[in-house]
Design a protein that fits this description.
This protein is α/β, with parallel strands linked by helices. The protein contains 5 helices and 8 strands. α4 links the parallel β5 and β6. α1 crosses α2 and α4 crosses α5. Bound molecules: S-adenosylmethionine (SAM). The site of S-adenosylmethionine has 23 residues, from α2 and β3.
C-alpha cells in the first residue's frame, strides 16, 4: 500500500472503501477482523461481505441493535465496553481496524469512552485508556496481526489527535507505518487524516 490513499468521502470519513482497502492489503478470507469501537458497523459489514469473520464491541445498545440488523451473523457484535476487553472471552484476532471516538484537548467534559454519556472527560486519561485497551488487545493478537487506527488532527481545537493517539498506542504496540487519507472533499475541521498501522 502506498503512503497516500485517495478516497471519496461521500459525507463520511470511515467509509466502506477505506475498510476494503485495508482488508484487501492485510487480511485473507476466514481471518478474524476486530473493531473495538464498532459504531454503525462499517468494519463488520465490509468484513462479512469480504468473507472475513467480523467481531466488534460497541457500548451503545441502540447502535448494537442497528448493526445486528445489518449483519448475517448478529453474534458478530457484542454490546460491551472496550475498556473491559481483558474480561471478555475473545478469540485470536488476525486484524483490527477502527475509528475511535474522538476527543479534543479543549473544553470537552463528555467522555468519548463512555459513548459521551458521562462528564468525566479528560484528554490525558482518554489517551491512557485507549493505550490500555490496545495493551489488552495485544494479548489476543495473532503473531502476524496488524492493527489500524484511523484518526485525524483537529486543528480547529488545537488537538493533534492522530499524533497523540499514535504516541499513546506506540507504548503498547509496535508502530509500523502511517498512511495519509487523501479525501476528495477536504473537511474544514481537520488537516490530515491518518491510518496508523501497528504490529503486536
Ligand atoms: C467513530 S465511531 C466508530 C466507527 C466504526 N469503526 C464503524 O465501523 O462504523 C466510535 C464508536 O465507539 C463507540 N464507543 C465509545 N466508547 C466505547 C467503549 N468504551 N467501548 C465500545 N464502544 C465505544 C461509540 O458509541 C461510537 O459508536
Amino acid at each position: 500500500m502506498r503512503g497516500v490513499l485517495h478516497l471519496r468521502a461521500g459525507g463520511d470519513t470511515f467509509t466502506p472503501e477505506l475498510v476494503e482497502a485495508f482488508l484487501a492489503e492485510y487480511t485473507r478470507p476466514g481471518d478474524v477482523v476486530f473493531d473495538p469501537f464498532a459504531g454503525f458497523g462499517t468494519t463488520l459489514i465490509v468484513a462479512e461481505r469480504m468473507g472475513r469473520r467480523p467481531l466488534g464491541l460497541e457500548i451503545l445498545p441502540d447502535r448494537v441493535e442497528f448493526v445486528r440488523s445489518r449483519l448475517n451473523d448478529p453474534a458478530a457484535i457484542q454490546c460491551a465496553d472496550a475498556r473491559t476487553l481483558d474480561r471478555l472471552d475473545l478469540p485470536r484476532i488476525d486484524f483490527s481496524i477502527t475509528s475511535p471516538p474522538y476527543m479534543t484537548r479543549d473544553d470537552h467534559p463528555q467522555n468519548p469512552l463512555s459513548g459521551y454519556q458521562t462528564l468525566d472527560g479528560d484528554y490525558e486519561a482518554y489517551l491512557a485508556d485507549l493505550a490500555e485497551i490496545y495493551r489488552h488487545l495485544r494479548g489476543q493478537l495473532a503473531p502476524d496481526a496488524k492493527v489500524v487506527i484511523n484518526a485525524a488532527n483537529l486543528h480547529l481545537h488545537k488537538t493533534r489527535l492522530a499524533w497523540d493517539i499514535g504516541q499513546a498506542v506506540s507504548k503498547v504496540l509496535t508502530y509500523e507505518r502511517d498512511i495519509v487519507i487523501d479525501w476528495d472533499e477536504p473537511k474544514e475541521w481537520f488537516t490530515n487524516d491518518y491510518c496508523l498501522v501497528f504490529t503486536p
